Protein 1
Amino acid sequence: MQPYHGISASDGIAIGPAFVWRKSARRVDGRKRRRGSAREELAQLESAIESTGRELGALREQLLQKLGPDQASILDAQLLILEDEDFLTEVRAGIDAEGLSAAASFARAMAEALIPLNLSGDGLFQERMSDFRDLEQRVLRALAGEPDPTPELDEPHVLIASQLTPSETAGLDISKVLGFCLEEGGTTSHVAIMARSLGVPAVVGLRGATRNIPSGTSCAVDGTLGVVHVDPTLETLHRFEARIRRRRKVEEQLLNLKDYPAETPDGRKIVLSVNVDLPFEIDLALESGARGIGLLRTEYFYFQSTNIPGEDEQVAAYTRVIERARGESVIFRALDVGGDKLISSMGGYREYNPFLGLRGTRFLLSNPELLRTQLRALYRSSSAGPMKIMFPMITGVEELRALNVHGREVREELTKEGHTFDAELEVGIMIETPSAVALAPELAADCDFFSIGTNDLTQYVLAVDRGNPKVAHLYRSQHPAVLRAIRDTVKAAHDNDIWVGLCGEMGSNPIFAVLLVGLGIDELSTHAAAVPAIKKVIRTIPYDQARAWADEALSLSTSDEVDAFLKARAHERLRDFLDMD
Ligand code: PEP
Ligand code: MG
């Protein structure tokens, strides 16, 4: 069978029999009339809500035991909806006043709650939609008297499913899951995050997997490359087994590097830090031997609750993060959303192309109250420990100047009110649009650092949607146009005496990391799991050589040429500890 190509969601390799989990979603016509009396349907609704609440509470407890409070809080959003009186009043009114069945009224109210999330192109909002759908299915199943269908694995298997909701993931006996192969879901889905934190390989975006892979078939899962071999040949199996053995050995060696600096043999020091989406990842970051958090995506704090969190609530949350980082610096990125969700809840409109719409800094500047609340909270939190602030998706100098005016006014306000904060706190910007690259010399004059966001920079430089599987083969951060944009950004930063980091996914690839060091990057922020290998390549290749790699790569004209060149070099120098064929 031809191998399946998907998207790598969690690094690692596994071999085992497939367990294909096909689940059918319950669909309900939102206009369906009730058969019984309003009283009977209302009673059924209350009992379904109560039993769903009990189920979720028990799953939450299991998550708490297995993975700690942050992972357990994943289910809080669902539990909160079940307790939301406005939402429940609407469901009850549908039954009582409009004569709908309990299932129809619940499904309709849920669909209405989902509209604002559905309008957003933002990946994280899409993930939150799966929380809501998960809850909807649980309540509809409870109303129909159906049991919870979470798969029960008695032996270790490679789990194949269309998608796993947070509560389904929570209910799994993870010790029996060798790897995840999912048709849907992105790299920021709960299952992907959980797989990464537990070191279980995962591949997502595997179209047709549940239809075409029979249960029991042997599967070789390559979570590193995002490939699944179904019914692998003996030769593939031997290759995978050899890789598993080699990875184990290398992992042991790399762990010993934890306390060594990320410094090239000829003395160039790189700040190696970690990207964090959810607070529990900070612990992994520190264990991995990284220095600080190079990107903390604050979106998480906003998605957690149904309302925009207030200033004090944010101060408490950011302070907890700083304390958890135990003296290492944390770069908090101001809220980076494609604005649709919040705009539509304020009576806004649908955007045809949210990635080119009211996103990142544009959104912040159009919502000054929200921006200033976050800035006040961030500055106030700065007395708890070392931190920096960073702004997302800058496209021009006027935006940075406007942000700086808000920053100055916020600091003045806080001083007048008697709050303490770090007056020297560094404020930086993400370089992730072609216009920011072109204006980097001017932007550098007005901020303290740059962090290159190659996830977006690649999509905007190459005009390739970062989340569209149909053009995924064109989305390549090693494209010469992206490399030249990075080179120009580094030059502008250094000419203006500021430091420049990189926090896109590109930095987590050890071969690209050498290239980036050679391009002059001062700080690399990667995922926690990538830190040991990145540290090893930095400590192996002298800066002089990395620069020669970068010069050569910059002289090439296509992504394939860059790829072939880097692979050949890596094969010569890094083969012993990289997972290369
Ligand atoms: C990036 O664009 O590279 C980045 C790190 O930000 P995000 O992935 O959150 O857009
Ligand atoms: Mg970005």
Protein 2
Amino acid sequence: MSSQIDHLLSESRRFPPSAAFAEQAVGGNALYERAAADREGFWAEQARELHWHTPFTQVLDWTNPPFAEWFADGELNVAYNCLDRHVEAGNGDRIALRWEGEPGDQRNVTYAELTDEVKRLANVLTDLGVERGDRVALYLPMIPEAITSMLAIARIGAVHSVVFGGFSADSLRSRIDDAGAKIVITADGGWRKGKVSPLKPAVDQALADRNGSGIQETVEHVIVVKRGENDVEWTDERDLWWHDVVPQASTEHEAQAFPAETPLFILYTSGTTGKPKGILHTSGGYLTQAAFTNRVVHDVHPETDVYWCTADIGWVTGHTYVTYGPLANGATQLLYEGTPDTPHPGRWWELIEKHGVTVFYTAPTAIRSFMKIGRDVPQGFDLSSLRLLGSVGEPINPEAWVWYREIIGGDETPIVDTWWQTETGAIMISALPGVTETKPGSAQVPIPGVSIAVVDDNGDPVGNGSGGLLVVTEPWPSMLRGIWGDPDRYRETYWEKFADKGYYFAGDGARLDEDGDVWLLGRVDDVMNVSGHRLSTAEIESALVGHEGVAEAAVVGASDETTGQAVVAFVIIKSRYLKQKPVDGLGDELRRWVGEQIGPIARPRDVYIVGELPKTRSGKIMRRLLRDVAEGREVGDTTTLADTAVMSVISAQVK
Ligand code: PRX
């Protein structure tokens, strides 16, 4: 099958930055020029924005591809860079975290306080025998202790593996085992949707007696933060309350220097098949690109901004743009524990008004769910403090982009649509908000210092106006350094396809428009082949949500006798629209609509109107399950769904 992906939608709206925004922006055109002239020299300059205990003399070592080393002879301490150096520069009183719990309790944590707390926990961990290179698993809600834990582990040269608090005991166990974690840090529970959702019981279950399992238990201690009022079971020789050990520990702790390639964290991400991959990131290169992109893409001005990235620390976005990027830059950020709609659907907008949030970074799935509820909810709050919006995680369809700008951004704020992956560690493709004339729906251009291409199956560039496979053609500082314990899988998954060219294959389809701007078309595994045309699920979904009645859409290809595959759409209708119009005939109307918007080839064979879509915890639609339904098969493994009941409801609706 050819890798050419046919492109059918067009979008002509353009939004240049205002003169006022451009003037104050951190990142300007000069960055592109500098990076184009000397890519490695450019990254060395960005790396020197950090504090190096021992300055590096080498930049990139790519003599053993695909295993890169960046700044390898330099030494630094990641936590020192995120904490002590701001305190030493006289900014200890600046608030690092403006935290708000779901029930409304609040804590402001200054850089000086966070530094002390990290030093205490670093001492506790060292006393418990955690050494450089040891792994510590975190299973925590979004509370300041989560950030403290990540930084304390980094401070002593150990490696964290954060497991999202919504994952089950089984998922936690397999991640703990794969990494061989020595300590687990958890909480009794965390507030979600108006009640304390327990965490410690899942840890207990994950560590429960495994006689006969053949797996050696590596966990020696569990440190437990008291967040709720939950009764927890206790294993005396193993479990420790955070409040019994951390407050009493000493705040004397000197940050030691570690080589730049010291592992910083493992983060598990689901592969298309098989067990989750433990993506490994290291210190110097990762922190360089995390801090740089947060400065120039999120345009963070640490003295004045209140920055808010809504991601949970269980995802890479929470690692790079909650913990490492903003703290390396000395920014003030909002951290919120709970769900967006508790206790009322305007909670996020209330938080923005109350804390004066200026820069806001969230996911398209959240934006679309707010569109579904209606604009009057955000319009009930004063959002005028916002000056920049960002999007991450999946393609943002032009309608959602424009809604985001108009309703949340007061028709004024630039929007940066940022493409990257757990594997890339930091933003790779995005507008610079003070430079780029933005286009709704397009992630647009690689950031300065990153080199990408859209190629065909042979690795040849497809050229402007065509679609193909997205590759990164040169190593970048925050690139993954491997898959934990599985170098062969690392090579096979990302580097084998274009081994002769040395390209990193991202697994995403993309197209270049006439200006050479990048449009992401979704995972290549999700591409459909209808009558010999490769069609992108993202484009048809985008057309569907462009219809006034549609809140959300998911499209899959189902096998079809005549066309090879046929387009099958699952749509959620806006509640407001349902009140006005009968559902009858809507399926036909939507089929016609897609035909008009894109072309007859893309017209869905079937349109199913459903109440929910199957999504993972991070909001990604699991098309594989919808394909099962569309092809009349029994529905496959649903364990990674946020709500496992969704699929039986959909199957019933379709029948
Ligand atoms: O398919 C792309 C999509 O999300 C994938 C990476 O997912 P994950 O590792 O969970 O990281 C998400 C947060 C960085 C990519 O391969 N993706 C991410 N951002 C975008 C996107 N697709 C289109 N546009 C984006 N801005």
